[in-house]
Amino acid sequence: MKNILLAILLFGLVDTTFAQVIVKRDPEIESMLKEVSADSLKVNMYKLVSFGTRNTLSTQLSATRGIGAARNWILSKFKEYAKNSNGRLSAFIDTVRYMPDGKRVDRPINLGNVVATLKGTDTNDKRIFIISGHMDNMRTKVMDSVGDAPGANDDGSGTVAVMECARVMSKHQFPATIIFVTVAGEEQGLIGAYFMAKKAKKENWAIEAVLNNDIMGSNNSNETNIIDNTKLRVFSEGLSVSDTGKAAMQLRQLGLENDGRSRQLARYIKEVAERYIDNMQIVMIYRNDRFLRGGDHTPFVENGYAAVRFTEMNENYTRQHQDVRTENGIAYGDLPEHIDFEYLRKNSGVNLANLANLAKAPSIPELVKIDASKLSNSTYLSWKSPKTGRAKGYYILIRETTSPVWQKKIYTEQLDIKLPYSKDNYFFGVQSVNEFGNESLPVIPSVGR
Prior knowledge:
Elements: H1 2-17, H2 27-35, H3 38-49, H4 66-82, E1 89-98, E2 109-118, E3 127-134, H5 152-169, E4 177-183, H6 191-202, E5 206-213, E6 231-236, H7 245-254, H8 261-276, E7 281-285, H9 298-302, E8 307-312, E9 325-327, E10 330-332, H10 341-360, E11 366-371, E12 379-384, E13 393-400, E14 408-412, E15 416-419, E16 426-433, E17 446-448
Parallel strand pairs: 3-4, 3-5, 5-8, 6-7, 11-17
Antiparallel strand pairs: 1-2, 2-4, 6-8, 9-10, 11-12, 12-15, 13-14, 13-16
């Protein structure tokens, strides 16, 4: 009997010793995720709601009410976080005089986005990663700038998620730059986001990814009564506006209509989020936004950047764009008591894990090529080292043409590889990866000889 027990114990030791590590997590990112706090999110949410209304047309003169007071408070919080950043985090309100547009702005206003920039530590690394949410909100009538509008979920949830990521991440260093922004004017036609995106384009910002958060703090829907805090949607555009002319023709020829930059970002987000956030499934939606609707990532998409939108799985339309009231036994209004702060904590973690993994990773591999010099049932790929960051190696990503996600990852430390997979039947991508396992966004190979 002793021998049997000893054999079982030894087998257990051997099994543990040689167990395969399926999920490799960066300890620093895990540590940051532990700091994301449902209580912190809740405190900031109730403070945001306390300003009464945050309609973009509301008063900017009061210290306690309206969009002006709200954005000043957000700025004060960013400046508070900056004290723990060793001088790397700076914040300001980026304003522009916006004139009546005959649509949803009927008088001149000072349009202002609150922007906090966590400067990267590598002066040669020009990459920028952006996380956004919109601080403004609306009542049933979008032009009502006087009445109370809590705006807890739309988009207090995205706003406090941005703030929480800034609070935690400002204590850490990243080679690339991260921008935390709460924009105004979303409900008036995305005007704050358009202002920022056009500025970025004009000044040639090297934006690698934009993570926009809008309505991502509630876990239940009306009509269907579904309650689920384990899923988060990510919306992504299939092709870029820059994919025109010969570029568009080649995309169609190669069958890459599902491989635009935003769609690749969505795939990346799904893998990284599900690696770090327990009990969370990222559901990719193959459209830029919800049916016939829009969000603050759209201006960035329209300017050629990779940008996606996070939104809860089950929206409740009795709480969106509704005056607070009870009607026919139904309670309407976007109140903070409807927020699931544990769900919001996980969704904030999805953002943080992806921002951190991207900003820590080397830049993308350069000149990624697929050899087309001869017919073959194998595939030869080659590439150059990334411009910035130290790549320990590279991941070769492989998926079938019908698969929504990458199915295989092959590691190599070389700058080329020959694969026993036909380029007729599979899609390929290449990522740079550092010693901590932080991967760059994937690059789809172009045709080479």
